[in-house]
Amino acid sequence: MKRSSSIAALLLLIPAGSTFTGGASQANSIGSIEIVAPYLIHGDNTTDPSQLQLLPPPTYSTVEKRKKRYKRHNERVAARIARKAEKAAKANKTAPLHLPPSVSERPDLSPQPAFAKVSGNYNGTVKHIENERRKLVREFQKAGTPSAQRAVIEKAKAFFLESIVQEILPEWYGTPWDFYGHTPTPKKGKIACGYLVSTALEHMGVNVNRYHLAQQWPINMARTFAPEHKIQRYYQKSAVEQAVRNQGYGIYLLGMDNHVGFVKYDQWGIQFIHSDYVNKRGVVAETIQHSVAMNHSRNFYIVPISNDDQMMKAWLSKRHFKVKRG
């Protein structure tokens, strides 16, 4: 109704007898008036507003629409978080929060590792981890009693935690974040939050397609490694820290509304390791209390990785994890 009225009002300004034809981006000169008609007009030489009709908007494929929608959503979330953080800093009249140094920046005061470390390139570290996994498989196969098998599983848990926390993830610290980042090499290219998780697990020897896993929602990433009844759900980040503390040392998958990462608990304490999209800092290790990315999630999904018996048996046997899609 408003559109017809506007067109009718425009037509009143056009001298009698003047004609114009519609067409995309066509311009017609009527006296001293230049009319730009960006839409298709049905019926040449018509002065009846009811005969004028706009072209439908251009169509895009569903995949392109979805990509654009996800990108706009994440940009809005990041901007909103940044505004709230800036507003809070101004209200408290305090300087921006300085996060504690990551594990890679601290002096190495940890006890002597139980497993030999590899000095050299990242690929050498990945190969070393695979060789140690195979040794553990042989030990498990030779174990003749349930208690002996239990001892091998506990050894596998310790090795997995130590390797991913001290060998794999520290190499990724400082790698830049990008929404479409999927580099397989630390500090070369960029990495998104989902790809950090899937790539680190793949390099640890977990048999999962890193591309398919990284492209899922966080809840489906959790469902890939645990049945529904084993996924721990919380609604405050303080509850996440307490739950991890209660379960003990280990590496945990942490999914949120629109973000995913690891929570590790070892002698250094509890830290959230992720590719930070909020301030675009890239891969960092930070305390849960200081994580801005966790402040704006209403749902938290925890799946134990290194301290779960079934997960460790699947890792040793190279069982394929079928990615849950949704």
Question: What does this entry look like structurally?
Answer:
The protein is of the alpha+beta class. It has three domains: 2-51, no CATH class; 60-98, no CATH class; 102-317, endopeptidase fold (from Nostoc punctiforme), CATH 3.90.1720.10. It contains ten helices and eight strands. It has helices at 2-12, 62-92, 122-142, 146-172, 193-203, 210-214, 218-225, 237-247, 292-295, 309-317; strands at residues 26-30, 33-37, 232-234, 250-255, 260-266, 269-276, 282-286, 300-304. The strands form two sheets. A six-stranded antiparallel beta sheet has the order 3-8-4-5-6-7. A two-stranded antiparallel ribbon has the order 1-2. Helix 3 runs antiparallel to helix 4, helix 4 (146-172) packs across helix 5 (193-203) and helix 4 packs across helix 10 (309-317). It starts with a helix and ends in a 9-residue tail after the last helix. Mean pLDDT is 78; it is low at 1-47 and 92-119.
CATH architecture of the largest domain: Alpha-Beta Complex
Radius of gyration: 29 Å
- By DSSP, the count of extended strands is 8
The overall average pLDDT, rounded, is 78
What class would the helix/strand composition place it in?
A: alpha+beta
Main sheet record: 6 strands, antiparallel
Features:
alpha+beta; globular; 10 helices; 326 residues; 6-stranded antiparallel β-sheet; two-stranded antiparallel sheet; disordered N terminus; endopeptidase fold (from Nostoc punctiforme); 3 domains; 8 strands; single chain
What's the topology here?
Blueprint: H1 2-12, E1 26-30, E2 33-37, H2 62-92, H3 122-142, H4 146-172, H5 193-203, H6 210-214, H7 218-225, E3 232-234, H8 237-247, E4 250-255, E5 260-266, E6 269-276, E7 282-286, H9 292-295, E8 300-304, H10 309-317
Antiparallel strand pairs: 1-2, 3-8, 4-5, 4-8, 5-6, 6-7
Helix pairs in contact: 3-4, 4-5, 4-10
